[in-house]
Amino acid sequence: QVQLVESGGGLVQAGGSLRLSCAASGRTFSSVAAGWFRQAPGKEREFVAAISRWGGRTYYADSVKGRFTISRDNAKNTVYLEMNSLKPEDTAVYYCAADTRAAFEWWGTPTNTDYWGQGTQVTVSS
After folding, report:
1. Could you say which DSSP state residue 104 is in?
2. Measured CA distances, 2 to 6, 24, 63, 72, 86 (Å)
3. What is the mean pLDDT of each run of 10 residues along the chain (126 residues)?
């Protein structure tokens, strides 16, 4: 089992930046791929970014490529999402996730994801 707890959400103006953190506990963190998804009101949960077990590979949704950066520190059991040039359409609840599949097999879809955090709200005002 992996328990995930997000932090760092909040209210920011368009063009601003936020850094989300996700602290993991339980299973050895380097044994799981990690990532971020988001869900806006009335919309389905969508993929944002994913990172392989040791951080060597990253994957991004087209909508955030070039603006968001995912990273992880296995010594601290933490995965991060640095979000720059935020837009109002980035407003959503952001969920940290982890999966026992390799990142290249798992990224892009929330389907059958093994572990989820409780979510943190990000609101971008125009």
Report:
1. H
2. 13, 6, 28, 15, 29
3. 95 98 93 96 96 96 98 97 98 96 87 94 97
